[in-house]
Amino acid sequence: MRLGEHFSSFAIPIDHHVTISGWQTGSGPALLLLHGFPQTHLIWHKVAERLSATYTVVALDLRGYGASSKPADTDGSHARYAKSAMARDCATVMARLGHPQFFVVGHDRGGRVAHKLAVDYPTRVRRLMVLDIAPTLAMYDATDRVFATWYWHWFFLIQPAPFPERLMLAAPDVMIAKFLRMPNGDFHPDAYEEYAAQLRDAATVHGMCEDYRAASTCDLEESKEDLEKGRKIKCPVKAIWGAKGLIQIKFNAVDEWKKVCDNADVTGQAFDCGHYIPEEKPDELLAAIEDFMK
Predict the structure, then answer these.
(1) 8-293 has which CATH code?
(2) pTM of model > 0.90
(3) Which of 8, 22, 120, 205 shows the smallest number of beta carbons within 10 Å?
(4) CA–CA separation, 191 vs 45, rounded Å?
């Protein structure tokens, strides 16, 4: 399955450990699309081609996912999967592709990478849209029974290796069925199969776990340090979340994003869907992107 017939692929080396793969097409201002767990760039398959009529669309596979590299954790620090490292991947890719400034839309884990990207590269990110997340530190600080019940996988995936890796690889189809649920409708079967295939690959499963382990360790430390030193998002931000998901139940998303932004231009809205907004509400998302980014 492809994003669209006009997309061309690329593979850009970041260092001797990591090469980031992605797809690009279109013309106009650059728009970077970042996927979440347990998916790949294919989460954008319902909107990417249409966005390319207005933007130069770049869709990546984050490190640890899809066709990008999956470096092993060699020292127990999980630093290779810190959102600062993933943000550096994105900044490097966009620079190599000739995009000194760009818009960003990030879903789930991609939204967390996009958050750090906007903090670490404030002159490069023009506008930021985050889909169905609140800031990582805010979510961990608000952990209670409701949060842990909805987002049980956060606490499963951060367990020391190789415990979660072995369990996921032992029953990948059970796991993917548990992870990928929509309140209404189904995933495209080809996209679903690609997501499922990730849970059958040992290197990818390890990369996913490392992504979450980093989120509960070095990412939290970096977030605290950023806030202590006044390093916040400086560009306009729009948060969109699913009205049938945890963000609606547990958080005031706009208020939480205002706390990590150094500007008053933070807006948000809920869509009548669950977590997987680009695949559940593509038309509404497309309209929101075009309205916010113009």
Answers:
(1) 3.40.50.1820
(2) yes
(3) 8
(4) 9
